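Dear support,

We are seeing what looks like truncated structure output for some complexes. This example has two components. We would appreciate it if you could run it in full and send us the complete token output so we can diff it against ours.
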Amino acid sequence: MTSDAYNELEKHFQRIANLESAKAILHWDSATKMPVGGAMARIEQLATLDGVIHSLITDPDIGELIDKAKGKDIDSWSTRNLELMEQRWQRASAVPAGLVEAYTRACVSCEACWRYARDRNDYSVLVPLLTEVVTLTRERACALSDALDLMPYDALLDEHDPGCRVKELDKLFSELQNFLPSLTNEAMSRQEKQEKPRHERARFPVKYQQRVAKLLMLQLGLEDNHSRLDVSHHPFSGGVPDDVRITTRYNEDNMAQGLLGVLHETGHALYERGLPKDWRGQPVGEAHGMAVHESQSLLIEMQVSRSQPFLTFLTTKLQSLFGDADFLQGVQDLSCLWTWVEPGLIRVDADEVTYPSHIILRYELERQLIDGHLDPIDLPEAWSVGMGKYLGIVPLDDRDGCMQDIHWYTGEFGYFPSYTVGAVAAAQFFAAATGQMPQMDENIECGDFSLLLSWLRCNIHSCGSRYSRDQLLRRATGRELETFDFERHLRKRYLD
Amino acid sequence: MTSDAYNELEKHFQRIANLESAKAILHWDSATKMPVGGAMARIEQLATLDGVIHSLITDPDIGELIDKAKGKDIDSWSTRNLELMEQRWQRASAVPAGLVEAYTRACVSCEACWRYARDRNDYSVLVPLLTEVVTLTRERACALSDALDLMPYDALLDEHDPGCRVKELDKLFSELQNFLPSLTNEAMSRQEKQEKPRHERARFPVKYQQRVAKLLMLQLGLEDNHSRLDVSHHPFSGGVPDDVRITTRYNEDNMAQGLLGVLHETGHALYERGLPKDWRGQPVGEAHGMAVHESQSLLIEMQVSRSQPFLTFLTTKLQSLFGDADFLQGVQDLSCLWTWVEPGLIRVDADEVTYPSHIILRYELERQLIDGHLDPIDLPEAWSVGMGKYLGIVPLDDRDGCMQDIHWYTGEFGYFPSYTVGAVAAAQFFAAATGQMPQMDENIECGDFSLLLSWLRCNIHSCGSRYSRDQLLRRATGRELETFDFERHLRKRYLD
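Here is the complete output from our reference environment:
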């Protein structure tokens, strides 16, 4: 029997989760359906919801209830749930309300300025606002650091990927640096024989792309009565576990963009759909964090969708769907397009081999920004130096340089590493799944993803936040996070 | 200078309004975009929001702040705002939390059962649930009656149309009963010469209907960056003043249905758009109530859109848009279709002449239900008797009888009269506007609605809830609510 205090806490956190769900739908609406004139009202709605949620999480009664519930006879899931409740309560209570408000306001202003500044390629107007965001982020990090007994930057990492620390990342990134530069060069020299695929050869009408995208979502295992597919400026997966909402954007000259967007987001959405039903609305029932989330999207996008068996399946599917339509001549480029390796300026356009270098650069720079070793005014210079060092190319302007990503300008520091932790974990998960199911390639070639999905459901999705990231990896793959499978995957795909 | 207590109240009610806005968008989403599998999560989101809103409105500090703010030197709008805040606080505090919860639960169950029972044409399964709803509604009405010093049914009327009382409605409905039966007969005997228009002669592809609908919305004055048009099972106007969301449904065999839906909802949406910007989020800045709201939708639908000048404009527009497309041959039927008078079983399909009889029947029955003079088990019998008395026809089954409307089964008693009060007020408003602008017909024929919109903005929309319904009528038309203009309008349109 669970304790009264614990039951009370579950009810309280369920209410918080319901309000978070409401926010998720409103965010989706803002990006997909809201007429522009509705923006101010939407900001007010979301800010009020944030305020209500904050006051519910920091409710002084929570601390007391947690103390009462501790040590009572509750099962292991409830124990973990209680632990996560306490972490949330500590986090939220650590930062003074005045600082939360100042930080939120600074982020909103900076984001708006970022859109303006990036359009005009004028970093200088952003400097004072970014400086303010960095200063307040540092203050937040210090407040969290005190409360959680973590280094300030670790406290930020922990927000996005619970348990992630600088120490681990330094080791991971240095291992990647050991093989990625030479692997990139080798892959590129192999490509020299090939003609670089031209996007424009494959011109796919949007309505066909939509049909294919929807079909792939369903085939991968998303149920039609629990999901939507819409268009937004940037692809994302939003909504709530029983009502997941994927978005993408379509470009008739480049089907890869829209389709890979949907495949990536389907990975995220499948994770949400598979979270433990019995723990809906409880911290332990939620996704583990951004790194595990990204491992699920990248598993579908990088491990599955860009593989030869999937490309065979997709090509066959497209041919059976659209017969001998003109645009089908472009399909033969897909395989080459989806596995082309070439250092570029833009992170979101990067291939999986050069992508980690973009992340390592950002990781180094954001640590320096938060530590105070790098002044925002000097960011463009540091960016160019870093790009030269890690990718061998230098942006001609700040738009394609330090202004390309929204993250820092909305106060998201400590987020970037999740992308690469996720990519490495994706390779490790997929290698384990394939090891246990030798028929994987064959199944994928036939468009049968049911066994893969069952494996993911069983080993990852249904675990919610029951385990730490490393426990999750150990249970599913027998090992903690390591680069072995990632390197082997890249060597096989790009050098074999 | 406004008082601190008053300012505090404004902030508090602004937060409540922001949460109500969030709810409005979520409601829209439920009816238009949500995959069915999201329903349970949505119910939780809305229930939690309701709970938060309820606790904010009944916050004991509110009463104290209101007392402090009273008598302070505040302007007339703020004084009225304060009065409305107090009414809301009194209303919300009058009903015990346990009763609110029991009532909400009973309504949700009854509504679900209604959908099932209506589909199967089986009223008997509904009886226990409707009985529960009626019982709890009566308890609610009595609690409100004590707190507001109103008769119980008046307290329900007041929820939908503030200030509305049985005494006034009895007088209004008896006046209508004095001329409607004979007017209906006369109109019908005039029609005898005409062939009854067949819907199927005008077959309009949905994509054309959507184009026309969107065009009419914009032409009537809704701005594209503050509005949307989508499809839902029942047409409605939702969202918030700066982000209004209209829905309709399309039937290729009956363009009138979809288009009149959009025109009606555009009237509602224009009202919301025109509410005083300086008072967004405050009770005084909100729409007055359902009767005034309905007067705005019916002014556009009945007074404007079914008029000869508008039909001329629409026909010309359709011809210029679609040239000599096949379906245009149906357009000539529109005028006849949109002004056909014939008693029918279904309220929502009724013409404007017979519509009030449907309302009078419901008004009589719901009063008896609330007073306890009619037992839900006897409703079908009372319905048939009433239909025979007021409309001369009797339903063959309960589906087309007492189960046709959702209102009672979701606990909405006291709502129906607003439709007819709105229709009568619409005629009065439109007559006043036309009296002040003799070029009205000419403008409408050219599709120029700007003067009409300015008049509505100035005399109604921008007043928000500053005045009572009768003050609003007196200011705009020189008189309180009366049937004179409504009767004249019907005689002109149907007997001239």
